[in-house]
Amino acid sequence: MAKNQDTASVLAFEKKLVPSDGYLYGTQWEERNNSASQTALQLSEKSVRGTISNRLKAAIKSDPVKLNAEVEKANLQTVDSCALAPEQDTLKLHFTLKVLGGVQKPSACNNALFKESYAQAVNSYIEKESFKELGKRYALNLANARFLWRNRVGAENIEVQVNALNKDNKQSWVFDATKFSTRHFENEDKQVIELGDRIAAALASEADFLMLEINCFVQVGKAQEVYPSEELVLDKGKGKKSKILYSVNDIAAMHSQKLGNALRSIDTWYPEFDDAEKSAGPIAIEPYGAVTNLGKAYRTPKDKQDFYTFFDKWARGTALERIEDEHYVMAILVRGGVFGESDK
Amino acid sequence: MNNIKRLLLLPHIKVHNANALSSPFTIGFPAMTAWLGAVHALQRKLNAQGHSDIKFNSVAVISHQCDLQTHKGVDDFVHSIIGTGNPLDKTGARSAFIEEARCHLDVSLVLEYTGIAKDDEQVLQEQITHLLSSNMKMAGGDILTFKASQFFKVENGNPADLSALTQKLMPGYALIERRDLMTEAMSAGQDAMDALLDNLVIHHHCEKVADEMNEEKVIWTSKRKNQGWLVPIATGFHGLTELGEAKNQRDPNTPHRFAESVVTLGEFKMPHSIKSIDEILWRYQTDQTNNLYLCAQTQKIILTEQDIEDSYYA
Q1: Is A233–B134 a contact, with Cβ atoms under 8 angstroms apart?
Q2: Is the pTM above the cut of 0.90?
């Protein structure tokens, strides 16, 4: 039996930011608003002769004959790649983003008492903050085109066009992404605030939604390589291909999860953020503040900075010390996940 | 007996990353329980919004596209599941991989309904659009886009009514039940697993024939036992224990029962070839004495190839 009366052993939240896959097209910068000139990018397979460049064992390194034999080996690789056509200098990334309301209700919760105290906490947050801060941060991550990931690096021009598609409330915004930093969220751009308010309104609603369409144009240079998502195939079988990229119906694509991760990279509230040496900039909202490419968790339970430490207090009615911690907890609920607690 | 069926078409729902574990041992198109469940959820949401008379009695599922997320390299014999990288754990280490098959879908649903007055149709269309966009999932996946719903009336035995609907479902494949093949094989003495596999494996067969020069030639043919696009599907659950309480059950107010999946054969069939809408409609069916909770088809006419051809050129 449950030790506490308000332990929810089954507790889950659906994600409230729902991106589609991102589709990659090629075009020319001047022609970016002419959809006729856009062509879907396809993956191409190439086989290359690589070099042996990894660190070698001491035994091989110190023996010139062995070393020679090793280095002369043909390191043949077959990989997927994706690039713009020779006459195209601009990558177009297209995706849609649905923002849903209803964070007041868990999608699964097996404890009525917990549900009640949780609903109270959420409602008081919405009353107090009405998701303004989170909405603005999500909007900024659209405006700064963080979702381009590696495609953003070294781009000459980046333009993000955002359209709200809701039938009775259409609206459009155009952002020059190079004007927005990806390192901080201090920006009071009027358009960003406007978009942020729309996102916030949808998040704060009980059952409303906002449908956004995002077209992003990146001038990367003629025939340059672009970067769709890589597929995670654990058991590649006998096939020799070592890199498999993602495509949908023959259009190179980025995973929805990857776009989602960029959009929720708004966590500047973790302890090491202000430490210039250790900071990783804004990190994705994760229960343990995990950053995959650094292999590090920035919010460990040991430091009592993780989601569960905050959530257990907050959802049961105890106020958190800082409003930033509340933003963080709410952002996790927007992200969604399974947060059930063992009743042992 | 009312001969007119009132149907609601939800066309081309695009579902992203739906659960493709169609049964405990197969991956592919999501299980029938997922679709009836989604429609039941829609009904309950509409009921809660004040349309307490609405009932969705049966459902047809038409697959326009199913993009299973697997990879098969050159020379590979099997497909492997394309996984998702999960977030790191609290130490920053990679969490364990759990293989979960996913698929992207484009499906149309046809719901047989009662309790919607003609005057309410437009209001309902809007409400359904809002519900599908704002707080519905299907087969565990996200609904990305869909087309506006449409109402149809189909009179039994009126081909014009039926084709007005089925035209909207093409190109696509309706999933129908082929339990009859299982029943047939099992009454002939095969056990369930053998009967299932026997219908799915490809039998290679060779024949020696003498040609005109009287030399022996070997001719290979490969085919399945039965014609049609047959697939294993899960259609419901078989209760294993008594109703009761289990630890950490999802809803404390509803009794719990452990269950196993019921797997049988299904067939993907073009909707233009059906003669009655009942051929593709599924409904809930419970069998209390045997503890079976099923999605089943009530009426079925299995057409032979010849029948289909006849009706096509008639």
Answers
A1: no
A2: no
